[in-house]
């Protein structure tokens, strides 16, 4: 419909221009034919006036009746041409004089009269009158041609005005239908972006053609299906995690009883097996807790912001990781001043715990860990930096994805699950902040948390 409406003014312009050009062509052709006929007729009248004079003088000398008959034919022809010319060129003042001269010429058919008037001065008057008629004819032709040129100029102006109006109208129609097509496309694009970001898309119908409206409805249908699958995934994770914790608790209790030798003494090989059971059960418990944390964050549960002091939290973490810190002979540097943040304690602890755990596990043997924090006018920040291998450039974003680990091997008995940094970033985003890997002049690896 848009293309048809845009083409309609163009079609109207073409029809108007063709009609104008047809009229102009017809007018020009008629005026040219008329100018040629009038000019040729005026010239022929001048020539006939000369022939009449010659024929009359021959008749006066020879007295032959055949010459008289020729003279009469010429005179009749002259009268017919003059009458026709007067119809085409009516405003010439010389017609009265020519009428008198024709009456005089008609009276010269008598031979005696012809001999007397054969040398009359009135023949010169006839030549002058014929010449004047020819000039009047040319003047009239010039006036007609001038009128034709004026008509041509008016038609050209009209064509230009119509073309300009049609161009503006077509442009407005093009802009209108472009908007009517782009607007629903932008609405669909917005819904696709909402779908990718996990945000509830706009439920209002798409404004536009029926095909795009149907596409918008399909996107809403797809959103509902993805939401349903997402709920099933979270429900599966929640059920699996809770179901695994019960038999895991029994396994850990049994391994602890064996390690404490409450059921009898163990030889060194049996003690080593019990140690393996304890270590892997702790690893399994860590994985389950990480899955529960990830599931909880993905559900976007509501939370309340309360004042949280950073220094006591960091001191508590150092105490929890004391054995790992002492075994790797790592030195931890904490800020001397405290900083209180208005945030969710659970999510903040998840972030700092994961960052500190990675710094201890991936840090260099006998290296150092720096924890810094500060507060600006619009945001607060916390950095955890450690000595160790630099993370490759192509892995700096991939390590934040779930179940992804970098190429640097984790040191220690327990292996990572690839969930720590993903949970930390999810927690930072849920708090309205950002977690990223930044360059630091003091340490090869530095993670920065920014909270607004």
UniProtKB/TrEMBL annotation:
One of its GO terms (molecular function) is phosphorelay sensor kinase activity. The chain crosses the membrane at residues 159-182. Coiled coil: none annotated. Pfam families: HATPase_c, HisKA. SUPFAM superfamilies: ATPase domain of HSP90 chaperone/DNA topoisomerase II/histidine kinase, Homodimeric domain of signal transducing histidine kinase. Keywords: Kinase, Membrane, Phosphoprotein, Transferase, Transmembrane, Transmembrane helix, Two-component regulatory system. Residues 239-452 form the Histidine kinase domain. InterPro entries: HATPase_C_sf, HATPase_dom, His_kinase_dom, HisK_dim/P_dom, HisK_dim/P_sf, Sensor_HK_Regulatory, Sig_transdc_His_kin-like_C. It catalyses: ATP + protein L-histidine = ADP + protein N-phospho-L-histidine. Its EC number is 2.7.13.3. This is histidine kinase. It comes from Aeromonas molluscorum 848.
């Amino acid at each position: 419909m848009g293309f048809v409406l845009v083409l309609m003014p163009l079609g109207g312009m073409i029809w108007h221009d063709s009609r104008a050009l047809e009229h102009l062509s017809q007018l020009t052709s008629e005026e040219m034919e008329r100018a040629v006929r009038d000019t040729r007729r005026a010239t022929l009248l001048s020539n006939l006036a000369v022939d009449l004079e010659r024929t009359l003088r021959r008749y006066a000398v020879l007295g032959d009746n055949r010459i008289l008959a020729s003279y009469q034919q010429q005179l009749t022809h002259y009268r017919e041409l003059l009458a026709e010319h007067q119809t085409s060129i009516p405003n010439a003042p010389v017609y009265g004089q020519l009428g008198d001269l024709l009456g005089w010429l008609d009276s010269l058919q008598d031979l005696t009269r012809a001999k007397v008037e054969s040398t009359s001065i009135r023949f010169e008057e006839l030549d002058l009158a014929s010449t004047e008629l020819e000039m009047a004819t040319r003047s009239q032709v010039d006036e007609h041609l001038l009128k034709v040129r004026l008509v041509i100029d008016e038609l050209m102006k009209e064509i230009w005005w119509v073309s300009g109006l049609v161009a503006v109208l077509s442009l407005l129609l093009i802009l209108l239908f472009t908007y009517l097509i782009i607007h629903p496309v932008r609405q669909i694009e917005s819904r696709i972006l909402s779908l990718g970001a996990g945000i509830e898309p706009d439920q209002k119908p798409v404004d536009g053609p029926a095909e795009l409206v149907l596409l918008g409805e399909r996107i809403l249908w797809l959103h509902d299906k993805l939401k349903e699958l997402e709920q099933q995934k979270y429900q599966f994770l929640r059920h699996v995690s809770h179901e695994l914790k019960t038999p895991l608790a029994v396994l850990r209790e049994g391994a602890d009883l064996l390690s404490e030798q409450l059921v009898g003494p163990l030889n060194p090989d049996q003690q080593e097996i019990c140690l393996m059971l304890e270590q892997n059960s702790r690893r399994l418990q860590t994985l389950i807790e990480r899955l529960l944390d990830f599931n909880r964050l993905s559900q976007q549960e509501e939370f309340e912001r309360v004042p949280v002091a950073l220094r006591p939290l960091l001191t508590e973490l150092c105490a929890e990781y004391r054995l790992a810190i002492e075994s790797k002979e790592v030195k931890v540097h904490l800020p001397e001043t405290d900083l209180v943040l208005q945030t969710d304690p659970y999510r903040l602890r998840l972030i700092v715990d994961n960052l500190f755990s990675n710094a201890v596990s991936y840090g260099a043997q006998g290296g150092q860990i720096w924890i810094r924090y500060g507060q600006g006018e619009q945001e607060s920040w916390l950095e955890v930096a450690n000595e160790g291998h630099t993370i490759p450039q192509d892995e700096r974003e991939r390590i934040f994805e779930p179940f992804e680990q970098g190429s640097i091997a984790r040191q220690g008995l327990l292996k990572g699950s690839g969930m720590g940094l993903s949970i930390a970033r999810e927690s930072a985003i849920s708090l309205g902040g950002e977690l990223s890997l930044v360059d630091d002049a003091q340490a090869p690896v530095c993670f920065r948390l920014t909270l607004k």
